[in-house]
Batch of 4 targets.
Target 1
Amino acid sequence: MRATTNAGRLVRQVLAGEVWPALADRHGYRVGPDGQPFLLPGMGGVTLGVHCADPATGYASDHLEPGASIRHRDAAANMALQFLTCVGNQVRVAGGPAAGAAGHVIGQHAYVLADFPEPAAANLTAGDPVTVLAVGQGLALPDHPRITVKNCDPGLLAMMPGGTRPDGRLEVHVAARVPAEAIGAGAGMVSEYANTDLMGAYQGLGEDLSLGLEGLRIGDIVALDDADHRYGRGYRPGYLTIGVISTGQCMLFGHGPGPSTLASGPSEAFWLVDDPDANLASWLHPQPEAAAAAGRESR
Amino acid sequence: MTGLRLVAVNLLGVAEHPRLGDSPYRVDRDGRCYVPAGDGGIVLGLRLGDSAFGLAADHAAPGACLVHPDPASRHALASYACIGNQARVRTGQAAGARGVVLGQRGEEGRVIVGLAQDDLARVRPGDEVAVRACGQGLRPPGLAPEVTVLNLDPDLLGLLPVGPGGEDGAAVTVGVRMTVPSRLAGNGIGRPAVAWDLDLQLPPPGPGGDGDLLLGDLVAVTDIDARYNMGYRRGWVTVGVVGHGASPLPGHGPGITPILTGPAGTLRPRPDGAGHVGLTEAMVQLQ
């Protein structure tokens, strides 16, 4: 049974941002797990060729942010954009050669991250204005009062499989489960901003660094063991956090593919179903043929 | 860098004033609002040997936190200052007073300096404090080369409960209050170990004081490699000195400044339990 929500009482707010450039400093290099210096792209700008359902790791990249990385120029307005934007929100390009193209928010990473179809992304670059239809903060599940939902568009929740089970638990389909040892940078930060880097997914960098997470894909719904993200990001035995992998490959030590938080509560309030199709691509980013068919129907 | 001599540099720190945003409140791990007293600045009455859980405070440190108005200079201050380095107040009512670096805090960077309580009470935010920074790059002869030393004044190593092991490959043993699994490591993971501390998400001590942690204690964290950035590496150990107290924030807690990191076979923590003696005021002549 679909979980009952308060979606009808949420407001939708029009927010503005722009595609933010990749940033570097004059020293260039950062440091890998064994002190390896590296200089690799991935953060900021528009990262092409990686979309939901693609592998999160295996790229010569650091903090890979699929699609467009978005901020607002004004510091306070930027925090509003980062805090209020939710996974699944629609993003529309408001100017430049890609004007009119529509995409979806896939997560937060101190940027709002938006995945666009590759042809649109190819015409998008730093400085292009985008409009975000923000809705989702305040979303609640009255039948699951111990579970806090955040950063989640109610439309996305409605498309995700699972819901309220006869035993009262919330069924959630997940593509992977993550042990507490994997929690890296992002611990201690608020859970409406940026994401939680997962260690143990450094493909090709040594067995002693692996926690078996090299198979993660962008857009995967994951469960974080012993993580309480109701009021920030912390370790709490017996709690569970559901997230969506919004960033990929990292070389920087203590960092890695990162889930943006969607829900958190006591483990016993959830019922997890292992499901390799639990990925944003299953619901938000239909294959081009399906999208075209949907377009014909709407005309 | 074996065989190379260390250099000392005089750095300028400024005693910090605490900073808050428009709202006085932060949200604790249970969703309650609180006002974060003691988070940076000058904290009186908290000393090495006191419990890290003893105050209704947030990240309280035993002494004065030093910062610098220029962000790059501030990062340099936090990166180069090492535990045991000498400090001297240069301006204000406490001018001339002697202090000692006891630890560091991350994010924008802070250096924690302990002073005698009489001197500390006369320090005012904005007062200048000189730090004679020395220690990064230390490669003590006789210490197993697999073990990396960081954030430690060269004169302090011999006073801490560290058995160097010798050059015959013997393991380095370190007396610690407790050994903590890596899953309790919070804020500080993924950050440079020369400039940040690592917060430990430890529960408060039990009724009989079980599990208590004192400021200055040495603590080992398993499966954390702190040679560069801090992160998970199976079979590795990092030992640090507790530099500040607990925090109500999720993902935060008492913070250690890393001083030793190496493979578990070569760096061996020895839990001393209640008998543990870590960094003390006597050791750094703060009494």
Note: Confidence is low (pLDDT under 50) at residues 287-299 of chain A.
Target 2
Amino acid sequence: MKLYKKEGNILQILSFSDENVEKGDYLLVEDPDARKALIAQVIDMQFANIPGVLEELLRTLPDGGEPIQGEDIDPLEIAPHITYIQDASMLICKIRATLENELLSPSSSWLPSRSQSNISKLSVPKLLKLADVEGTRPIIIGGTKGASLLTIDASSLDGRLNIITGKKECGKSHLSKLLMVSLISYKATIVIFDLNGEYSNIGMTADGKRNMHYHKIYALIPAKNFKVALEQLHLNVVMGILIHALHLPGTSAREFRRIWKTLKDSGNLTLCSLGEAIQNLKCNQHVRDALVSRYHALVNSGFFTDSLAEATLLEEILLKSKEEGGAIVINLRNTSTIDRQILVEYVLGKLVDSLQSWKLKAVFLFAEEAHLYLRETYWDDIVTRMRHFGIFTTFITNQPDTIRESIYRQADNIFLFNFTNEHDLDVVSRASRVDAETVRSIARDLPPHHCLTLGKVVRDFPIVARVRNLDVKTMGETRLFFNDKK
Amino acid sequence: MIEQYTITTTPKYNFPQSNIDTILPQRFIEQSIQSLKQVPPQHIQLNQHNFLQYHILEQHPSHLRLNHTPITLNPNHQETTIAAVDTSTIKIGETATGIIIAIRGSTTWKQHKKYRYTRLGPFIFHITEENKNEVCNTLEQAYFGTYYYNNRHTSPNFTQMPTRLASLLERWLQTILAKTLSKGLILFDGSLTSGTSDAPVQRMKEILSLARNNQSMVLAFSKMTSLRVNGYLITEQLPKHEPPYLLETTGLRFKSPLIPLGNVYVARLNKSKYAFRLDIDKETPIPQRMSAVEKLLGNDLHMQGYPETLRLAHILCTFTANEVLAIKHFITRKHGIQIINRPDMHKLLFGPFGKGEIYS
């Protein structure tokens, strides 16, 4: 390999076919005199602009549809050299860091010698070691090209905003399960908004046996094993549900607050008494109608109960998982849009309450296709206010444009699977820790189950890895009509 | 060592073979390897000028008359094999003691409406003042049983060596075709004027004779000519007549030692505005000559009035810049010759006005 050009933080390196370099590989451009080296990543590969190649191709063009038949007698065996030159490639590389005295710095302000520099491939393990990526709580994401492992530090997910995105069926849920299981093993508390009901069985192995995490997985199905007694509800949480999920107007909200307090003070806070109080409320007809319709929405969700025995104490589960780690899976599979929003409002409200009162230290929240249940104002709330309380969110989506631009800008880590659509790539490339060229060039060519990891988890050295297998029961398979596989 | 290289066996042409020696020019390979071994462990100076390819040059003009009455031609579609030969040479770079050149030859033929080709080479030579005679003599002796000094009074000019070796290969390929092709047409690139170092009279006569014995006809097309009548190039005095046609010339005489072995015509083979000098073996009867051109018209394509078979031969032997790079890579890897760039004195002294030496 030879250094050809440097423009800004882009290097162009001439490479030959026997050097076997691929997109995503890291190269070390060492200048022995300067005693420094540039670490650059191959983000694109092009044919080198070899003079005469066009003529060479033109004369081998077919003649009237058939190639001209012939024999080349090449006694000195020059032909392999011609092929060697013709197949030369130009590697477009992005400078990621400068290595000096075994220390990395993000600088690319110096110019290595074109003629004297030695260019070699930098293996992922060596890079990870230099960047000190693995840390003390390793999570093995998968294998990189050189059969080495990509291991990240669980601490680098702590306090961070993460995004897992890619097109359908490329392994996003698989990776999020892997992260969850790994975090649980480090005794982390996890809450999952499980849109398709595919995380409930992460406590089971693929063949249906219980795994080591079985007792730490709390699969909650709303209106079945997940109900709330009004008595347990804090007024703020209820008001959040009414205003944000059920869009109760301000005047009606004031009336509801008054009714709630009255019932609470009288020790008679039940669904039934709440309904009666609303019916008997002497007020404007529109206000009453608004309250009645919201009351029925709450009742019809099946999520609220008067029976304390039926009610599930989310707080208790959270506290249990605080000790040994655990995942609370909120199964949103068979819930309507309104019910979903009610549930999410409740869970988030409860989490904020628990965190504010230091009952919980921090929670990792995994939200799949969050646009389907997260209200507009929550997006910014989650990445700013709630982060300070200790809710560290991972968004999982196959529609990257459903996540707001401000979320991308603040994302600390992005796990990017294959995207072919330019628009999707444009959206993802808005993330501040990502450079657009890398995303566009590498993500487009990622094979299934391969993930480009970007951000703090890899110390801003984007690395492609094949996500490792996980022995958990898969639930996310699409139901098919033609399922008679041969 | 010769045995380090794969020397392939006889190329099989797709037309009748006679019992003649058609082995590969092993001497070319031997001389090529031998000469490269003689390069001392030193750097090679890259050829600073554009990749220059040498071709056999046009001969001197003479008194000449051009008959402006066209000889009308009717394409004859009777199946006839058409074969063509061309060679090319290029200077790769310079060493302290000489130059490194590459030579390649190609033969193409059209038979049963399909084109086929054989390419020979490239052969790479390190030519020095010391070895130039040896290289020439060995090759001449190997193929034609003659020594260079037997026919000439002076040793070959150093700068003419690339052309000399290329024409040696070209004559050998022409000989092979003349020996092997029966009742066909053999197209040469250039004229049938003999008496030069590159086209010795005896050798040219032998080639034409071999072709005649095989009932084949040699047609030599010149891409450029210096022959003029009344001050104008013969190829630019075209009558208003529907092509294809030939214009006959008479009175072609050269000063000694040049001897024309063909009759010169101006051939306009299609409606394009280009016409070419065409030399046809003067030992053949005129009706046969016309018949040969008509068969060429009926059996080959003509782009810009030039036979496709000959055009392909030229294209296939030409060195591309990519191949030149590959050859440099080969001599560096196989023979350890390091390539460096010495400053171009023209550019150094005259800046943008330094255009470098112009080879002619």
Note: The radius of gyration of chain B is 21 Å.
Target 3
Amino acid sequence: MADIQKLEQIASQVRRDIIRQVSDAQSGHPGGSLGCTDLIVALYFDAMEHDPSFNMDGKGEDMFYLSNGHISPVWYSVLARSGYFPVSELATFRQINSRLQGHPTTHEGLPGVRTASGSLGQGMSVAIGAALAKRLDNDNHLVYCLMGDGEQEEGQIWEAVMFAAHNKVDNLIAVCDRNNQQIDGSLDEVMDLGDLGKKYAEFGWEVLRMDGNNMAEVVDTLAKAKSMAGQGKPIFIDMKTEMGKGVDYMEGTHKWHGKAPDAELTAKALDQLEETLGDY
Amino acid sequence: MLDNIQSTGKKATRDGFGAGIDAISAENDQVVVLTADLAGSLKIQNFIDNYPERYFQVGIAEANMMGIAAGLANAGKIPYTTTFANFSTGRVYDQIRQSIAYSHKNVKICASHAGLTLGEDGATHQILEDIGMMRMLPGMTVINPCDYHQTKAAAIAIAKHHGPVYLRFGRPGWPMFTEDMPFEIGKALTMAEGTDVSIFATGHMVWQAVEAAKELAKEGISVELINIHTIKPLDEEAVLASARKTGCMVTCEEHNRYGGLGEAIAQVLTANHPTPQEFVAVNDTFGESGKPADLLDKYGLSVVDVVAAAKRAVARK
């Protein structure tokens, strides 16, 4: 049984890390990072079997691919808090000579990252390749992939959706962050996705839905998704989140998609987020 | 030496690729092959029959193919992606750039039907910019073998080379003449030594250069003929040694004059040993439908064009 309260405490610290990274760099993407914090924490601290000593090939462990690479601050924080690299390194986010590039990459050798992302729409294809390799190697661990909802507008995703269903890639759990915000406005205005879960279901996927900002629900849904693996269908989780979750003035707007708070607003944000594991 | 270079018949370079896949897949069980609805054109049917579990048909979805290949490579597989050169490069440049090149993935991008000699399908498919695009990617190895045997050797060799590779070959039957010659990635192959002019050729144009060198010999012009199958990393020592020896250069490629072998060699010469250079390449235009030989004539890639370029180069010394 997962300790929900403990996961929530970790999430609070991760949200602090996000604000501090973006604030220090005066650059980065806090909104989506805060919205996806509960999922990434639940994955790394509960759902996934993974080894922080990090092996690129991921054999014998679950793997995670972040397709919407701009929410790197949440991933970096969770990787550091999981032991992939020193937490102090979060202070180098987006600075010159850092392994913590604006968008995640293997180029500087950051443990935990297996493929660069940032240019949208590519992560699910890579995750499928990793899942196929696990099948070839008789490794029954799972591959997880997180995508954004605006990213669903990229055609490559639908190539991947078709492929995964046709080829019964049933060791893949793909999650879409449905915060309904993209840079130029809400998805309703820019490109309405309609009932996304229904679309995935029509393509032949198993579909689950969850409130991505309710830790207990995230933990339960991930457990359910895992139990559905290996049954001939890839699994999709339509995850509703609040962009900017946990910082009142960042919630409910796309204004903080890719904008850093100033000193005053940084202090205001940190006042709302309990320091549970010690700041870096 | 030049007289010893004889064609033993014609086979397509893509058939050489298929033969190479057969050989390396039997030897290395980490080799996996993906295709985007072009298994027949890329000659991988034997592989599909022998190793169905290591074969991935992705349908007409090249972007997805590149991403899947990157993911397979993460787990230690050696993925070969197979489609036409146009769909292997321009169509999926960003996928290659981010998921493969920038991410250092051990993916082999195998591209048939490159250049004008694709023939009748016309300019939509006759890519003449692919070498340039792939050369520009940091860490990408770019190989354009010249005949069946060299393509087979290259298809085998790239599995033993760790890192992303672009392997470019073609559609038509083409003279075979390298059966007993060595192949080493990054190492230029001297096919004939000479003193008056250096001809550096890649891909199908190597045979054109062989015929041109024989013509030039009849006129008393001694050609140093060098096959550059690996355009990146370029064998700079071979380029400079030959340029110092002959004092002038011709480069031959089935590619736009921008971005390809000629430009790569010019950069080496300009920085180290400025040398008169003539370019046999497509002059910044798209191709069209037609028979391969007719297209090579029309777009300035015939044996006559190579001979004329060599004479111009010699005259500039």
Note: Chain B touches chain A through 32 residues (CB under 8 Å).
Target 4
Amino acid sequence: MENNKVREILDRVAVEDTSFQEKAAWREANRAWLDRSAKIAIAILSTLRSNRKESKAPATQKELAENLGISPQQINKIVRGQENLTLETISRLEQALSIRLVEFAHSYVTKTSYSMVKTEFTSWQKIEFSISKEMNSTAETVVYPPEAESGESNYAMAA
Amino acid sequence: MNFSISFAIRKIHDGLYTVKYSGSSQPELTNLFEKWNDPEYLSDFFEANEADLHSEFWHTALGQPLTIDKAIDDTIQQAEQLEKCFYKQEHESYESFNTRLNQSFVSLLKSEVYKPLYQSLNKAYKSKKGWLRIYALRIDTTYIVTGGAIKLTGKMEDRPHTQQQLDNLRNVAQLLKQNYFDSDTDFDSVYIEI
């Protein structure tokens, strides 16, 4: 049977549907965070599965929801990889499950009582951090690595 | 002849159609990629089929044991690649889109007939690492997607969920012939794998 004839027959009985094309386009546009959300979901599901085997809590989505004080529907959205999670939610999930969900590829500059603690970077790239002072509201930008010598410190502070 | 399925036809693009089974909220092509991007669905599926993940075939193909977590992660990545085959870019021509489908779909019958030969001779077959399949009926260069599956075993008959896909191909072809096409219309069962 000729192709045109085949399509003529099918077009008579078929309804056009854009759901595949629309959802595929949405996934493509949101791929970056969806990938991360899926990996977090996998880790949560893996931990719940492991807890079930070891008779530990939380072992179910319901128990996890109760632990966090949120709805089971919200947890279900998270384990389906459809939730654009906040850092607060990630931290609470980590605490409830006793696991680390997000690791940073680069270590970072931490501040303790206004002194900078140097930690290691995997490459010497210029990274800017905005750090708020705890004692006042002035924001400072730390440029790392330093572009110029700055005394004993390896950090150049730019106002 | 009575069949236990009923369905409607949905048009995705010129030359590409998909079945929407009664009782399902979405057409099959949409439904498949929703499931293959859903870690919860995949976790349940791989937990139920965990023994197949631990088969020698996958251990050899991947060079490491296949865990549920890795299987979920890999499936989402495979789905991303497979989805591109069916996604028509905004300015893509019909010819380009249809050529991609023609080059991607493989006859199921031929692959089953020649599988022993492929298995012994074809290195590509041995190095196959994907388990996602989309099944369709082909009439000339027009495709009607009937479903898809996560195929972890050698034959479709090996597991109920892949056997179901074979049944769907046969039943949909039969019902289309009964209602819309001549009985001698040549429906070829085809699939795309990744």
Note: Residues 7-193 of chain B form one domain.
